[in-house]
Amino acid sequence: MSNYAVEMKQTAQAMVASGKGILAMDESNGTCNKRFEKLGIPATEERRRAYRELILTTPGLSEFISGAILYDETIRQSTQAGVSFIKVMQDAGMIPGIKVDTGAKDLAGHPHEKVTEGLDGLRDRIAEYYKMGARFAKWRAVITIGEDIPSRACIEANAHALARYAALCQEGGLVPIVEPEVLIDGNHTIERCYEVTDETLHAVFAQLYRQGVAYNQMILKPSMVISGLACPIQAPAEQVAEMTIQCLLKNVRVNVPGVAFLSGGQSHQQASEHLNIMNAKYRSHCPWQITFSYARAIQQPALETWRGNDANVAQAQQQLLHRAKCNSAASLGQYRAQMEQQLAPV
After folding, report:
1. I need a surface site. Which of 102, 214, 291, 309 has the fewest CB within 10 A?
2. Is 221 known to be catalytic?
3. Active site residue 250
């Protein structure tokens, strides 16, 4: 058992505390710059820093957000006043987390499939991040549905990497967020998505077991079982909730503290609605907390309001807080569509 076992168990439970979710703000500089460019925001380190300050200093955010996943650049940055972002989070009662993978790369011999890299040197990076104040980490695997894919090789390669990452995290004191994302891109049906998600989760938990990962000191961050974006038949929200929970109950070990979904290209209202139905209808059947770890589904309205202009910070923060509040309600089964109209004017 890791020396950090007690601390990690407490951290994992705090990450999925009732009514709270995890904010994913760990997009790479390249991804962040692309989003900025679309809105005419200068793609500079200073504007990225200013945007992350806007997010982390949002008043009242910690009421709905337990922690945030940072990128390597962000965890080293500070507010304009010189306070490190780690300290800002700790003072607000939010847990700092860090993305540790180095991205999904082409899987040799398997066209159109990816494997996530970043295991080389990971033990040392974990030690550094722990010393800086991070208490959890994230690693994302990407599974694509298409003609004759995913292959068994792709699923197994990603499951193995996720498990080795998780074991290294627990050795070094960081709670691993295990994120196997079955992409929403494609014209596949919800039934096909279920099959692939089922196979993926089965493989991931088999590898976690083999690598000796403690289930009660990790968080699962899966995608929902949902129709592909280009599928002519889009499954209704009730079916998404039912099939997702069914798939999780079949595969996720009972002592995992929480399941924190990624939004994965859903609209922000869809992401809230699906999470809400899962909690309203199926919470009593589930041994783990069911919550969110969203990125765009929380941040996008704030980014569009801010547009790189410091005069818009307060209004953008209000948008961010509103989305966090809606998803907090969804994690309790208390979200209603009318809440979307309740954003008070600035």
Report:
1. 309
2. yes
3. no
